[in-house]
Amino acid sequence: MKTIGIFYGSSTGTTESVAKRIAQKLGVEDAHLYDVAKASPADMASYEVLILGSSTWGAGDLQDDWYDFLAKIKKLDLTGKTVAIFGCGDSSSFADTFCDAIGIIYTDLQGTGCRFIGSVPTDGYTYDDSTAVIDGQFVGLPLDELNEDDQTNARLDQWIDSLKKEGLE
């Protein structure tokens, strides 16, 4: 398997919990999990695959710790790296900005040379709009732990299977 680093921003612990679940399902040790509030862009250098996670806050905002971190990593040359993005959001209260953080990270990393994997069909999701939807698919895995937590395990398993098919291993 390729070397995997998981980088997340979490204010309430939800995104951190999902990051740990992804790590467990992929067999990634805790030493390769990074809270972006404490991480450095240099921490990404040794990984072939970067899995990035952020919750969406308010009217489509990134989780706070991502702002400074993303500003730094979008200046990096990520050529040769594979990137997958996941995010947590509230599809009921914020249906018009559901998991926008995924779309923000995706857009900001355009031009860095990385290859994105892990797009997800919009079927089965209840929301009105999202900047994470490009060409009819989410550019990463959206999760709603508040309203659709009963679907999280199946969504994680399907996403991880698709990542493996797209070259994670």
From TrEMBL:
Coiled coil: none annotated. Residues 4-164 form the Flavodoxin-like domain. InterPro entries: Flavdoxin-like, Flavodoxin, Flavodoxin/NO_synth, Flavodoxin_CS, Flavodoxin_lc, Flavoprotein-like_sf. The keyword Transferase does not apply. Keywords: Electron transport, Flavoprotein, FMN, Nitrogen fixation, Transport. The keyword Ion transport does not apply. PROSITE patterns: FLAVODOXIN (PS00201), FLAVODOXIN_LIKE (PS50902). GO terms for molecular function: electron transfer activity; FMN binding. Pfam families: Flavodoxin_1 (PF00258). Its cofactor is FMN. PANTHER family: FLAVODOXIN 1, FLAVODOXIN 2. Belongs to the flavodoxin family. Low-potential electron donor to a number of redox enzymes. This is Flavodoxin.
